[in-house]
Write a structure and sequence with these properties.
The protein is α+β, with helices and mostly antiparallel strands. It is built from 3 helices and 3 strands. The chain has a single domain, classed as Fe-S cluster assembly (FSCA) (GMP Synthetase, Chain A, domain 3, 2-Layer Sandwich), CATH 3.30.300.
Length: 95
C-alpha cells in the first residue's frame, strides 16, 4: 500500500512542477505538455502545440523538462515521450 501512496505523492509533485514551471515557459513558444503517467521514477509526457512537431522537441524534453523535473523531484529517474522513443544519442547529452 505504501508504494501506491509514494507513487501518488510523486505524481502530485510532478504535476505541480509541470503546471507551475514547465508549462508556462513552453507556452511562450506556443507549446504545451501533458502528463501521461509516472511509474517507477519514469515520467511519461506528451509535448503538444508547437512543441509536437518541433525538431528541437527531444532536446526540450531532455534538457528542459527532464532536467527541471529531476532537480525539483529527486525521485524522477527519467522523462520519456508518450509519442516517440528516446533517441540513443540523447543519453550522452545528459552526462
Amino acid at each position: 500500500m505504501s508504494i501506491v501512496i509514494d507513487r501518488d505523492k510523486m505524481l502530485e509533485k510532478v504535476k505541480e512542477v509541470i503546471e507551475k514551471e514547465i508549462k508556462p515557459l513552453l507556452a511562450l513558444e506556443g507549446g504545451s505538455i501533458e502528463l501521461v503517467d509516472v511509474e517507477d521514477g519514469v515520467v511519461k509526457v506528451r509535448l503538444t502545440g508547437a512543441c509536437a512537431g518541433c525538431p528541437m522537441s527531444q532536446y526540450t524534453l531532455v534538457n528542459f523538462v527532464e532536467a527541471t523535473l529531476k532537480d525539483r523531484v529527486p525521485e524522477v529517474k527519467s522523462v520519456v515521450s508518450a509519442n516517440a522513443q528516446r533517441a540513443p544519442w540523447t543519453d550522452m547529452m545528459c552526462r
